């Protein structure tokens, strides 16, 4: 083993991850040291330190000297694709922490661990995105899951939160098992776990007509494991419960980052490792995409709880993103990433607003009708939320449309007509419940007085930024499209 | 002058409408009457220049709307026909203006009334002066509007409201035909300009075209369509029901619109289009038959009406039938001659009737009058002159035209002409009967009035009498004076305004029919007069016996109910259309099928669906895990058994799957 | 801020504006259309800067901005070259050049008048809400101004995707207008129906647009016009476009949102719906479906004829039995739009020009009628016919105006609708006499319901039992009606000015499809 080269390059490239792991350790210590302090302040302090570390990691990432290389004995791979996704993960991490300050204070969740857990899960996801080997993949996924289980249950005095964490843990373990089993099957049939080796092995595989049921089963298991993490239907059952039970900021975190990271990883595995046996997995992804869009649209119709509603809405969005994955083309990937970014923006806005409204008895809003007074007490926020909902429904000229039209375009150009048609239809159906939210905001003239809470600075900035993206993206969407194109190209460069 | 002649009444109308408040009653009357009066004077000049001196005038104003080949211009054409109509319209209108100023005196809405009258005059002038079909159509609908407004003038009366709507609607049915006719004209001739169309008509004599999916002779179809317009406006059989009802309006209106001018627009149209009609023998036959039937139908109905104005209205209807069948027999000049004559004596009759009604405190039922000759001798004289002119008493105005019509009908020797002649003679009998019945019952018979109305009775004031006198002069002399000019053999009067094929010219022929035949109408008139006198005055009991007998009652009811036209229309068309509009289209389709398949059904379906989804979400971890496993199995099956499955996920089958699912859901929702 | 200050500001603004506009039109290559779209948008943004206490200022600014837009759009007409077959005021900017998508604007003789109509109606709507809107005033004005901009954009865009964007964007403010300022609880349902019907139709159109983009590599209309699609594809595309436009027109099986939306919307909403929104559908057919898919157009003509005839007769008969004033006018709109469709698909100059005129005419008359109903509603808070009667006694001026619009509605010669209707039927007559005859029954039936309505409301004996406060229309209301009245009569008496500018463009459409 050439230690020299190991130190020379690999660690250099992995600097952000390494930095984050160290930062986590330091922050844990910091937390332990100051946790005796009576005020909430130490949580906030930890939070700012987390932001700082994430920001530094981002800087490290951006200024990283290497743009494209395999490292750690081909178990990790860094290129523009990972760079892009990792950068977004870090940004989202920062955003989520920013969102959390006020919420934690109001909910009296004096836990610095929360912040550190966010940091740790971000770290895990950085690894996930970079992994280039089934083993590395599995380890990263488990790392991430572990952090998530804990963070879901972080509101210790809430039964819901505990239940959510537990459920997430059980089902997550189940899916991890499936994932691991799938990986081992693949390994058993091919003798390798490395993605590029797999790709080499499969070159022209389908035309060889080899009986390879076991391999397919392995592939299925791997995909299903990931689809579970994505909460794509029919593996979505956990997500409404977990979304509802977890503290709202955690819900936001769940709605944002794993979608990005897991989907990126799944894309990488399917495109790089298994591109030549696209037939089977494309079917699976297609079916999941269809099912998710339908479930997302219909499931949300009857919901009265905001977080459950948003859970179903995110299931629907995952369905749309999978459409891009299923198309199996460069444009598909591109569309998927465009969609992701816009989805992130819209979700940020939504959660910022949901977090900042409180009921009369100073509880966080839980039901949709709690929002009914918002258009009076806080007109600007109400308008923002309403427009974001229109955007989620995919009404032009808002950003939501931008993402959808490109997805439909790729679906059509890959002849996935059923996907496109069901996609538009379910977007019509789903617009129904988005409209319901708007209706609650504006049309119901209730007399119940709700307390008016002004936005804290952090959320205000976050909200403004993300809403700006939603509103004005259509005017000049070029940079986003170009960046995602570059991502897609970087990914496809790996396909042999 | 030619333009101001048309637009002066509009000016009067608008002034009155806009500034009536400032003008006051007198001012309004003055302005409108002056305007119409000047228009009348100008018409006389125009008549002299155009008709007598034979110099037609064309004024091209501006394009109205031009679309590719379709060109409608604001253009005015003055030929003899127009000139005659101008004189008729403006003279009667002026007189009616004068009459109304006194008749409507005291009505708070007098300015509005005068304004409407002038507006009507304007549209009527537009109608007769237009040099293309479109402008005719403008006037055509415009007079309809004015008629609607005037009938509705006393808008608090439900009857007035109803009849106004009825009048406009019935007219619009006619307009529907007219519009189709005009479009047909454009389709064939690629223009709606009279001159071009008339010049080209002979070239399309024997061609046919596809109409409503049938191949039909071209000119005949177009002419019949145009004639449908006439049927509506001139209250011919089928679309006549509005005219008697229109008597709900103030009496001057009835005189102006529903006797003298507007209703004759249909005749005018046929006469104007004579160059086309001449090449459409089928259409002429239709025109003749419809006209004849109208004449008879209306006359027979008029026999038993009890409302003073209604009798005259049916008489109008009947006379219009005469004019129309005269035109149908290609004797347009006779038709127009009768039109002009009729305008005078019918206006006289109506205005006279107005005087009576005015005198007896707005009572219109003849049965509640009687014996008025003692108190209203002047009115009686006027009404008598009018009636005599109407029935065609020798040497009065009606005589010259009506007899001429019957004679040409006899001289034609064709099936339709024979039909027309017989019905025409029968109507002459009826006409005479009801005219004299009216006189007898109203003026001569025993008095049936309330004392209170009797006490306030008075002869008409000067402003009302003056028009009567003038019209009476017209009724007596116009026929005699104009006969040779209008229908004299070889007259050059009409120039190119009216056209009839040489083979269709009958005037000479009619001079040579047997003398006995010529006397028949006169004899029938006499008979009618005698009958009227006997049955209503000297021997009332016999008429009572007749009407109380079984058949007598049937006949009486049938006639009194106007041949049950209204009932049939209401029951067959009105009711069904209304019930369709509510029960079928609104309730069953819009709020039924479409609502079920659309918003309501979908909402219910999605509600059910989301309910089912919710019930799947139990909250038990093992359920969730189980679903995941099933999902996984499903995926494996999908991939492993793709060859088997792929048949069922054929793109084309999705639709069927979807629909099946929808149906299952819908039924589940109901259960 | 006192009112004299506001007035002075408005005056100064108006004093400068003509110079500004003149320069804009006559300076070469100025993106005039873009400015036209931006003006109301900037106005809408500016409204957010005004503190919400100064309601009067908000109203005045909104009104001035919309009026300015209107005047500016008239300059569009002044600078328009009627003899040119090309699109004018062309403006192209990068939008997504990477995807070969450009932000292309341009107008021809067809879209010109729709733009003017929309900019005319918006100030009227602002005045409509002057006193009747009491909640969310700023939002109301903003929604109207955004609508203004979107409608200008939708009529001037020459890019399919951009058209789709604007076509849909109109939904947002309209949904809000119906839902927030509507009158009854049912308004929510109406708003939903409006939104979902349109949205459902148009997403299918989106798929078709994407397919075309996929095939031709661009969505620029001017390039697509030179592209030939196979007949099967044309049929498919046509159907998808049909789904979108038919819901908007609305054609018969998908029309039921319209009465709902009209009844529940505030007057301004109804005015805009009837005046402009419905025309989006027919405009779409004319601008996109007909020239792009000529073979499919011919293929579907009988189908559309059938639907439109049904619409005319069926809707008219339904109208006769309605008891809600607004519903009557709404259903009559369905019938009129049926006639418009007949004209479009007669595929000859008379038919197409007639239907454009009828659209414009209907865009004046039917808002007028809705405003009449609004006037009544503002006073008596009911829309049921049975409570009204003898209005002429107390509101003579109103009765006159109402009469004028009623006559416009039944297409009396001399009003705008007549010219349109007659040309449409003439055009139709040349293709199919049966259809023309069936379409013409609308004349009779239209007369039936309009006159019935007018009679019941205006004539008869007043019903003091129900209605015991009286006021004729006031000055503001009168001036709202004036432009519509002038327009109606002008288009009836001398429509040549409008026709003159559209001849070439219409000929273009027809020639292009070589119908």
UniProtKB/TrEMBL annotation, chain A:
Topology of this chain in the membrane: Multi-pass membrane protein
All residue ranges annotated as the NADH:quinone oxidoreductase/Mrp antiporter transmembrane domain in the record: 131-429
Transmembrane stretches, start-end: 12-34, 41-63, 83-104, 111-129, 166-190, 210-231, 252-272, 284-302, 336-357, 378-399, 405-435, 460-477
Gene Ontology biological-process annotations: ATP synthesis coupled electron transport
InterPro entries on file: NADH-Q_OxRdtase_suN/2, ND/Mrp_TM
GO CC aspect terms: membrane
A GO molecular function held by the record: NADH dehydrogenase (ubiquinone) activity
Keywords: Membrane, Mitochondrion, NAD, Translocase, Transmembrane, Transmembrane helix
Family annotation (Pfam families): Proton_antipo_M
Protein localization: Membrane
Main location: membrane
Record-linked NCBIfam families: NDH_I_N
PANTHER family linked to this entry: NADH DEHYDROGENASE
Protein name: NADH dehydrogenase subunit 2
UniProt lineage: Eukaryota, Viridiplantae, Chlorophyta, Chloropicophyceae, Chloropicales
Gene (name only): nad2
Automatic annotation (TrEMBL), chain B:
Membrane-topology descriptor: Multi-pass membrane protein
Keywords: Electron transport, Membrane, Mitochondrion, Mitochondrion inner membrane, NAD, Respiratory chain, Translocase, Transmembrane, Transmembrane helix, Transport, Ubiquinone
Subcellular location: Mitochondrion inner membrane
Annotated NADH dehydrogenase subunit 5 C-terminal domain residues: 434-638
Family indicated by similarity: Belongs to the complex I subunit 5 family.
Function field: Core subunit of the mitochondrial membrane respiratory chain NADH dehydrogenase (Complex I) which catalyzes electron transfer from NADH through the respiratory chain, using ubiquinone as an electron acceptor. Essential for the catalytic activity and assembly of complex I.
Protein name (record): NADH-ubiquinone oxidoreductase chain 5
Taxonomic source organism: Chloroparvula sp. RCC4572
Organism phylogeny: Eukaryota, Viridiplantae, Chlorophyta, Chloropicophyceae, Chloropicales
UniProtKB/TrEMBL annotation, chain C:
UniProt main location, coarse: membrane
Keyword Translocase: yes
GO BP terms in the entry: ATP synthesis coupled electron transport; electron transport coupled proton transport
Pfam families assigned: Proton_antipo_M
Topology relative to the membrane: Multi-pass membrane protein
One Gene Ontology term of the molecular function aspect: ubiquinone binding
Keyword NADP set for record: no
InterPro entries found in the cross-reference section: NADH_Q_OxRdtase_chainM/4 (IPR010227), NADH_UbQ_OxRdtase (IPR003918), ND/Mrp_TM (IPR001750)
Keywords carried by this UniProt record: Electron transport, Membrane, Mitochondrion, NAD, Respiratory chain, Translocase, Transmembrane, Transmembrane helix, Transport, Ubiquinone
Enzyme class: translocase
Transmembrane segments: 5-26, 32-50, 57-80, 100-128, 135-155, 161-182, 194-215, 235-258, 265-286, 298-317, 329-349, 355-377, 389-412, 432-454, 478-495
Residue ranges constituting the NADH:quinone oxidoreductase/Mrp antiporter transmembrane domain according to the UniProt record: 159-441
Its EC number(s): 7.1.1.2
GO CC aspect terms: mitochondrial membrane
Catalysed reactions listed for this entry: a ubiquinone + NADH + 5 H(+)(in) = a ubiquinol + NAD(+) + 4 H(+)(out)
Location of the protein in the cell: Membrane; Mitochondrion membrane
Function: Core subunit of the mitochondrial membrane respiratory chain NADH dehydrogenase (Complex I) which catalyzes electron transfer from NADH through the respiratory chain, using ubiquinone as an electron acceptor. Essential for the catalytic activity and assembly of complex I.
Protein family (similarity comment): Belongs to the complex I subunit 4 family.
PANTHER family named among the record's database cross-references: NADH-UBIQUINONE OXIDOREDUCTASE CHAIN 4
Protein name per Swiss-Prot or TrEMBL: NADH-ubiquinone oxidoreductase chain 4
Species this protein is from: Chloroparvula sp. RCC4572
Gene from which this protein is expressed: nad4
């Amino acid at each position: 083993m050439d230690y020299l080269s190991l130190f020379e390059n690999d660690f250099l490239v992995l600097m952000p991850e390494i930095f984050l792991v160290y930062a986590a350790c330091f922050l844990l210590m910091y937390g332990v040291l100051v946790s005796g302090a009576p005020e909430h302040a130490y949580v906030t302090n930890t939070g700012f330190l987390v932001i700082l570390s994430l920001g530094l990691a981002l800087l490290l990432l951006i200024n990283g000297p290497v743009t494209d290389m395999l490292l750690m004995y081909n178990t990790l791979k860094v290129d523009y694709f990972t760079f892009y996704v990792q950068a977004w993960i870090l940004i989202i991490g920062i955003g989520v922490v920013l969102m959390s300050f006020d919420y934690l204070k109001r909910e009296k969740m004096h836990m610095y661990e929360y912040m550190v857990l966010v940091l740790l899960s971000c770290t895990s996801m950085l690894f996930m995105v970079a992994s280039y080997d089934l083993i590395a993949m599995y380890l990263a996924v488990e790392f991430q899951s572990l952090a998530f289980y804990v963070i879901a249950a972080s509101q210790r005095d809430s039964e819901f939160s505990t239940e959510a964490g537990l459920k997430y843990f059980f089902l997550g373990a189940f899916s991890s098992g499936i994932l691991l089993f799938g990986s081992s099957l693949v390994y058993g049939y091919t003798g390798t776990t490395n993605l590029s080796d797999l790709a080499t092995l499969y070159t022209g595989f389908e035309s060889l007509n080899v009986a390879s049921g076991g391999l397919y089963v392995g592939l299925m298991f791997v995909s299903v494991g990931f689809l579970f993490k994505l909460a794509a239907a029919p593996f979505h059952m956990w997500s409404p419960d977990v979304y509802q039970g977890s503290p709202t900021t955690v819900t936001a975190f769940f709605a944002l980052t794993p979608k990005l990271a897991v989907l990126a990883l799944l894309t990488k595995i399917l495109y790089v490792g298994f591109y030549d046996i696209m037939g089977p997995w494309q079917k699976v992804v297609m079916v999941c995409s269809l099912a998710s869009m339908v479930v997302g649209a219909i499931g949300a119709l009857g919901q009265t709880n905001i977080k459950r509603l948003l859970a179903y809405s995110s299931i629907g969005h995952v369905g749309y993103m999978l459409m891009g994955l299923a198309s199996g083309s460069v444009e598909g990937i591109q569309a998927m990433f465009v969609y992701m970014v816009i989805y992130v923006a819209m979700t940020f806005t939504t959660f910022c607003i949901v977090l900042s409204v409180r009921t009369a008895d100073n509880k966080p809003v839980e039901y949709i009708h709690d929002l009914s007074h918002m258009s009076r007490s806080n007109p600007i926020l109400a308008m923002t939320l309403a427009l974001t909902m229109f955007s989620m429904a995919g009404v032009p000229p808002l950003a939501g449309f931008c993402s959808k039209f490109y997805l439909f375009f790729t679906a059509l150009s890959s002849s996935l007509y059923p996907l496109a048609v069901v996609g538009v239809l379910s977007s019509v159906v789903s617009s129904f419940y988005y409209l319901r939210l708007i209706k609650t905001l504006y049309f119901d003239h209730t007399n119940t007085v709700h307390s008016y809470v002004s936005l804290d600075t952090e959320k205000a900035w976050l909200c403004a930024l993300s809403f700006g993206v939603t509103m004005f993206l259509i005017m000049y969407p070029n940079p986003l499209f170009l960046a995602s194109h570059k991502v897609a190209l970087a990914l496809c460069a790996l396909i042999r | 002058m030619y333009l101001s002649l048309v637009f002066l009444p509009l000016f009067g109308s608008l002034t009155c409408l806009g500034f009536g408040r400032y003008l006051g009653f007198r001012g309004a009357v003055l302005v409108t009457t002056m305007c119409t009066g000047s228009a009348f004077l100008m018409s006389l000049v125009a008549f002299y220049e155009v008709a007598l001196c034979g110099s037609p005038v064309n004024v091209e104003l501006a394009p109205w709307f031009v679309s590719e080949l379709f060109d409608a211009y604001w253009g005015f054409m003055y030929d003899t026909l127009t000139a005659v109509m101008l004189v008729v319209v403006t003279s009667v209108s002026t007189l009616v203006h004068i009459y109304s100023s006194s008749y409507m005196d005291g009505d708070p809405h007098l300015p509005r009334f005068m304004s409407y009258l002038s507006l009507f005059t304007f549209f009527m002038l537009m109608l007769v002066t237009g040099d293309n079909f479109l402008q005719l159509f403008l006037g055509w609908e415009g007079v309809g509007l004015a008629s609607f407004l005037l009938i509705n003038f006393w808008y608090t009366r439900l009857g007035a409201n109803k009849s106004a709507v009825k009048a406009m609607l019935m007219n619009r049915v006619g307009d529907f035909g007219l519009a189709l006719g005009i479009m047909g004209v454009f389709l064939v001739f690629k223009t709606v300009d009279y001159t071009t169309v008339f010049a080209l008509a002979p070239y399309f004599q024997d061609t046919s075209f596809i109409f409503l999916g049938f191949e039909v002779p071209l000119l005949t179809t177009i002419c019949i369509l145009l004639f449908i317009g006439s049927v509506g406006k001139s209250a011919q059989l089928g679309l006549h029901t509005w005219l008697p009802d229109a008597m709900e309006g103030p009496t001057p209106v009835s005189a102006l619109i529903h006797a003298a001018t507007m209703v004759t627009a249909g005749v005018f149209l046929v006469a104007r289009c004579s160059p086309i009609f001449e090449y459409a023998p089928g259409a002429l036959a239709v025109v003749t038959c419809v006209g004849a039937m109208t004449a008879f139908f209306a006359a027979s109905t008029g026999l038993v009406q009890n409302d003073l104005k209604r009798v005259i209205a049916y008489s109008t209807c009947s006379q219009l039938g005469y004019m129309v069948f005269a035109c149908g027999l290609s004797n347009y000049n006779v038709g127009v001659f009768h039109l002009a004559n009729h305008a005078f004596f019918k206006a006289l009759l109506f205005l006279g009737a107005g005087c009576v009604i005015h005198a007896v405190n707005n009572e219109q039922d003849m049965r509640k009058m009687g014996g008025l000759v003692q108190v209203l001798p002047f009115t009686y004289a006027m009404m008598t002159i009018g009636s005599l002119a109407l029935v065609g008493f020798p040497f009065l105005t009606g005589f010259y035209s009506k007899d001429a019509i019957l004679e040409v009908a006899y001289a034609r020797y064709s099936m339709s002409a024979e039909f027309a002649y017989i019905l025409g003679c029968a109507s002459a009998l009826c006409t005479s009967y009801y005219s004299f019945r009216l006189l007898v019952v109203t003026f001569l018979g025993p008095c049936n009035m309330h004392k209170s109305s009797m006490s306030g009775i008075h002869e008409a004031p000067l402003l009302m009498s003056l028009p009567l006198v003038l019209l009476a002069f017209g009724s007596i002399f116009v026929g005699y004076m104009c006969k040779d000019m209008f229908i004299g053999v070889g007259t050059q009067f009409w120039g190119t305004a009216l056209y009839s094929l040489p083979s269709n010219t009958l005037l000479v022929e009619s001079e040579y029919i047997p003398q006995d035949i010529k006397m028949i109408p006169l004899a029938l008139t006499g008979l009618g007069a005698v009958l009227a006198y006997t049955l209503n005055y000297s021997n009332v009991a016999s008429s009572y016996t007749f009407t109380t007998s079984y058949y007598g009652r049937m006949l009486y009811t049938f006639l009194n109910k106007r041949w049950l036209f209204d009932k049939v229309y209401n029951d067959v068309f009105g009711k069904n259309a209304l019930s369709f509009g509510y029960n079928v289209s609104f309730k069953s389709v819009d709020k039924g099928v479409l609502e079920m398949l659309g918003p309501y059904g979908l909402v219910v379906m999605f509600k059910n669906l989301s309910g089912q989804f919710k019930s799947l979400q139990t909250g038990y971890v093992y359920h969730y895990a189980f679903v995941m496993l099933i999902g996984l199995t499903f995926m494996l099956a999908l991939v492993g058994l793709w060859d088997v499955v792929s048949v069922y996920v054929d793109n084309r089958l999705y639709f069927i799957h979807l629909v099946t699912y929808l149906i299952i859901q819908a039924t589940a929702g109901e259960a | 801020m006192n009112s004299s200050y506001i007035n002075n500001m408005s005056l100064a603004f108006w004093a400068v504006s003509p110079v500004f506009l003149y320069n804009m039109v006559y300076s070469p290559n100025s993106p005039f259309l873009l400015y036209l779209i931006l003006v109301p948008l900037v106005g809408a943004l500016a409204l957010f800067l005004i503190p919400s206490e100064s309601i009067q200022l908000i109203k005045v600014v909104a009104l001035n901005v919309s009026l300015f837009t209107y005047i500016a759009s008239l300059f569009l007409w002044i600078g328009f070259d009627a003899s040119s077959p090309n699109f004018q005021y062309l403006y192209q900017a990068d939008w997504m050049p990477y995807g070969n998508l450009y932000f292309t604007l341009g107008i021809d003789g067809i879209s010109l008048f729709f733009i003017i109509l929309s900019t005319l109606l918006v100030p009227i709507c602002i005045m409509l809400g002057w006193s009747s809107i009491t909640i969310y005033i700023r939002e109301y004005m903003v929604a109207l101004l955004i609508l203004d901009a979107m409608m200008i954009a939708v009529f001037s865009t020459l890019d399919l995707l951009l058209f789709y964007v604007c076509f849909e964007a109109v939904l947002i403010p309209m949904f809000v207008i119906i839902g927030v300022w509507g009158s009854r609880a049912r308004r929510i349902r109406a708003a939903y129906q409006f939104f979902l019907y349109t949205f459902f139709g148009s997403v299918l159109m989106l798929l078709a647009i994407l397919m075309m983009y996929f095939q031709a590599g661009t969505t620029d209309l001017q390039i697509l016009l030179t592209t030939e699609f196979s007949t099967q594809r044309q049929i498919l595309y046509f159907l998808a476009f049909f789904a979108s436009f038919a819901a908007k027109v609305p054609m018969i099986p998908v029309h039921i949102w319209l009465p709902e939306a009209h009844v529940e919307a505030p007057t301004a909403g109804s005015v805009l719906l009837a005046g402009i929104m419905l025309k989006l559908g027919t405009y779409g057919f004319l601008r996109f479906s007909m020239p792009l898919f000529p073979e499919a157009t011919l293929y579907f003509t009988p189908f559309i004829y059938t639907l439109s005839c049904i619409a005319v007769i069926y809707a008219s008969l339904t109208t006769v039995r309605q008891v809600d004033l607004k519903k009557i006018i709404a259903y009559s709109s369905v019938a009129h739009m049926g006639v418009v469709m007949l004209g479009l698909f007669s595929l000859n100059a008379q038919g197409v020009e007639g239907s454009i005129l009828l659209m414009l005419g209907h865009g004046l008359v039917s808002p007028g009628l809705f405003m009449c109903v609004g006037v009544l509603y503002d006073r008596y808070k009911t829309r049921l016919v049975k409570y009204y009667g003898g209005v002429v006694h107390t509101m003579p001026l109103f009765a006159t105006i109402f009469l004028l619009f009623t006559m416009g509605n039944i297409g009396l010669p001399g009003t705008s609708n007549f010219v349109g209707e007659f040309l449409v039927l003439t055009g139709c007559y040349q293709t199919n006499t049966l259809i023309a005859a069936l379409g013409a029954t609308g004349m009779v039936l239209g007369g039936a319901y309009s006159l019935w309505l007018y009679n019941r409301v205006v004539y008869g004996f007043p019903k003091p039992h129900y209605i015991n406060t009286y006021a004729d229309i006031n000055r503001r209301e009168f001036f709202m009606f004036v432009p519509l009245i002038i327009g109606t009569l002008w288009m009836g008496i001398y429509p040549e000015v409008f026709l003159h500018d559209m001849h070439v463009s219409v000929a273009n459409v027809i020639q292009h499809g070589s119908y």
